[in-house]
C-alpha cells in the first residue's frame, strides 16, 4: 500500500510498469502477491523467498515465525511436497520431493541435499543455486531456465522437469515451459532490441539448435553463451501485460470503458449485457444440477451483488465460465469427465481434450480452467490423507499433472497415467461408484445419522441432503461389489446386497444388526471390528476351507 501498488479504496493492484490495475484476487492468482496464510509453496519457492535458514536447516513460517524442519513444514502445509521438484543426479531425472526424501537425496530433518553417488552434502540454498532444486511453475523466463540448470548446451534443448522431456526452443515456447515475452535480442552493432519471435522469423534464432546468430561476427552461440555476451537479454515484463488484449465486443457494446479486465457484479454484468440470463448457467446448491441464471436469481439461489472479473481472451479458446465470489457462472453447460471420454473429446492415453466448438487441443487443466469440463465431475483420492479432492485443487496441490493429466498416488508417490488412474479407482467419477469401505474411510458416512454425503453434489451445508445406504446404492454413488459383510454371530460372509436382503444390514438407518454385544452398531465401528471387509476376503475364506 505504501509503495502505491495497492489502492485501498478500490481494492485494485497495479504492478510496477503495468498499464492498468487488476483486482487483488487476480493478482493473487498470477502470483504477484502471496497469501502467507494459505501457503503450500514449492520447495524452490520457499528457499527463493528466504524462508530457509541455512545454519539451522529449518524453515521459518511467515505467519508465526516458528522454525520448522522440512518434514514439519510439509505436515503443516507450509511446503507442498507434491509440487516440489528435485534432481536425482544418479539417474539425471527430476523427481517429486517425497521420492527424493525416500531415496535419501533430501534429508527432511536436517534440511540438506545429498549427491548420493559421491556422498556430497549441501544445504538447500546451495542445492537450489546449483540447479538441484528447480521451479515447478510455468512459464519460466529463458534466463531463469538457464540459471536453474534446465538448459542443455550440448543439445541446445531445455528440460521440462515435470515431464522429464527434452524440448528444443520452439517446443519449449509452444508447450508453455518458456515465456517468449521475457527475452529479447540485442543487435551487437546497432544496440537495437527486437523480440524473440522476430528473431526466429528472420533467422537470427535457430530454435531447433538453440543458437543465436551474432550478425556482427556471423557466429552462432548457444543460448547460455548468448545471455553472457548480451546478445539475448532478459526483459522485466509485468505479468499483468500478459492479460492486456483487445476488449471483447460485449464490453465495447455495453459502454464499459477502459482496457483489459473488468470487475463487476452479476447484476452489472446483466445490465451491461455481458451475460444472457436465459442461457448462462449456475449449479443449484439445493440439487447440484445446472439451472439458468434467471431461474437462480428468481429463487434467490445466487446473490446478484457478488463481484467477478471478465478477462480478455488470451488463447484461441474463449473462457466459458466466470467466478463471482463462490458462484461460478457458465456460458454453456460444461461436459462431465465421463461424457468427454464417451464422446471422444478426451483421450485418456494423452490426457488431451479437443474442444468440441473450436476443435483446439487443450490439456485437461486448461479445459477445467476455461469451464469446458465440469470441475466437480471427477474426484482424486488423496490416499494418504483420506480425502477426496476436486480437479482444481488436485492441479493446485500437484496431485495431478497439468500437462499430461498424470495422477499421483500420495501414499506410494507413484505416478499413474489418466487411464490407469481411472482403472485403479485413484480417479473416480459419478458413473463409476465409490467402494463402500472407502466411503467410510474418506468421511462420506455420518456415524450419528447413518447417512451418506454425495461428494459430487455441490450444495450448501443447509441444503445438503444425507442419503441413506439404500439411496446411495440406488443412485450408483456406492459400488456394492467390492465389499462383503461378516456375520458377527456365526462368522459367515455374504455380499453387501445379500446382507441387506438377510436383514443383517439396515440400509435406511445405516447400521449393522445382530451384533452379539449390542443391538446395532454404526458402519465405522463395524469396519473397525472386522465385520465389513474387502471382497477379496470371501475368496480367501473359500480358499482356506
UniProtKB/TrEMBL annotation:
InterPro entries given in the database record: Plakin_repeat_sf, Plectin_repeat
Parts of the chain that traverse the membrane: none
GO cellular component: cytoskeleton
Taxonomic superkingdom: Eukaryota
Pfam families the UniProt entry points to: Plectin
Record-given protein name: Plec protein
Classification lineage: Eukaryota, Metazoa, Ecdysozoa, Arthropoda, Hexapoda
Amino acid at each position: 500500500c505504501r509503495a502505491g501498488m495497492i489502492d485501498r479504496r478500490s481494492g485494485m493492484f497495479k504492478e510496477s510498469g503495468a498499464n492498468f490495475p487488476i483486482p487483488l484476487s487476480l493478482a493473487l492468482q498470477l502470483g504477484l502477491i502471496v497469501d502467507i496464510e494459505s501457503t503450500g509453496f514449492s520447495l524452490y519457492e520457499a528457499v527463493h523467498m528466504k524462508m530457509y535458514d541455512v545454519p539451522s536447516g529449518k524453515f521459518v513460517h511467515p505467519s508465526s515465525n516458528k522454525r520448522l524442519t522440512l518434514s514439519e513444514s510439509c505436515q503443516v502445509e507450509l511446503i507442498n511436497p507434491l509440487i516440489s521438484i528435485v534432481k536425482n543426479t544418479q539417474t539425471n531425472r527430476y523427481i517429486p520431493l517425497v521420492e527424493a526424501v525416500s531415496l535419501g537425496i533430501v534429508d527432511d530433518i536436517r534440511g540438506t541435499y545429498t549427491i548420493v553417488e559421491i556422498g556430497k552434502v549441501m544445504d538447500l540454498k546451495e542445492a537450489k543455486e546449483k540447479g538441484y532444486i528447480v521451479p515447478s511453475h510455468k512459464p519460466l523466463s529463458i534466463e531463469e531456465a538457464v540459471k536453474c540448470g534446465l538448459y542443455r548446451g550440448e543439445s541446445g534443448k531445455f528440460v521440462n522437469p515435470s515431464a522429464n522431456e527434452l524440448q528444443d526452443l520452439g517446443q519449449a515456447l509452444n508447450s508453455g515451459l518458456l515465456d517468449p515475452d521475457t527475452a529479447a535480442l540485442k543487435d551487437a552493432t546497432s544496440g537495437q532490441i527486437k523480440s524473440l519471435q522476430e528473431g526466429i522469423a528472420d533467422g537470427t534464432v535457430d530454435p531447433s539448435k538453440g543458437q543465436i546468430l551474432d550478425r556482427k561476427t556471423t557466429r552462432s552461440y548457444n543460448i547460455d553463451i548468448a545471455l553472457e555476451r548480451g546478445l539475448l537479454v532478459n526483459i522485466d515484463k509485468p505479468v499483468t501485460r500478459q492479460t492486456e488484449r483487445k476488449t471483447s465486443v460485449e464490453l465495447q457494446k455495453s459502454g464499459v470503458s477502459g482496457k483489459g479486465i473488468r470487475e463487476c457484479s452479476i447484476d452489472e454484468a446483466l445490465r451491461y449485457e455481458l451475460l444472457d440470463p436465459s442461457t448462462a448457467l449456475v449449479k443449484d446448491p439445493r440439487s447440484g444440477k445446472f439451472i439458468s441464471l434467471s431461474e437462480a436469481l428468481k429463487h434467490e439461489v445466487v446473490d446478484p451483488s457478488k463481484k467477478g472479473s471478465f478477462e480478455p481472451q488470451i488463447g484461441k479458446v474463449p473462457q466459458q465460465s466466470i467466478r463471482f465470489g463462490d458462484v461460478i457462472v457458465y456460458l454453456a453447460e460444461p461436459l462431465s469427465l465421463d461424457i468427454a471420454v464417451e464422446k471422444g473429446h478426451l483421450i485418456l492415453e494423452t490426457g488431451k481434450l479437443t474442444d468440441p466448438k473450436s476443435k483446439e487441443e487443450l490439456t485437461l487443466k486448461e479445459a477445467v480452467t476455461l469451464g469446458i469440463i465440469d470441475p466437480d465431475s471427477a474426484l482424486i483420492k488423496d490416499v494418504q490423507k483420506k480425502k477426496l479432492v476436486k480437479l482444481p485443487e488436485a492441479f493446485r496441490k500437484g496431485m495431478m499433472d497439468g500437462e499430461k493429466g498424470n495422477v499421483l498416488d500420495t501414499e506410494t508417490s507413484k505416478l499413474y497415467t489418466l487411464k490407469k488412474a481411472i482403472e485403479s479407482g485413484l480417479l473416480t467419477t459419478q458413473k463409476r461408484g465409490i467402494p463402500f469401505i472407502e466411503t467410510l474411510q474418506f468421511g462420506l458416512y455420518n456415524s450419528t445419522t447413518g447417512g451418506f454425503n454425495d461428494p459430487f453434489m455441490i450444495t450448501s451445508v443447509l441444503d445438503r441432503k444425507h442419503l441413506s445406504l439404500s439411496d446411495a446404492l440406488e443412485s450408483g454413488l456406492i459400488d456394492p461389489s467390492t465389499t462383503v459383510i461378516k456375520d458377527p454371530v456365526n462368522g459367515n460372509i455374504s455380499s453387501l446386497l445379500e446382507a441387506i436382503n438377510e436383514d443383517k444390514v439396515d440400509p435406511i438407518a445405516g447400521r449393522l444388526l445382530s451384533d452379539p454385544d449390542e443391538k446395532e452398531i454404526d458402519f465405522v465401528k463395524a469396519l473397525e471390528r472386522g465385520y465389513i471387509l474387502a471382497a477379496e476376503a470371501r475368496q480367501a475364506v473359500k480358499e482356506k476351507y
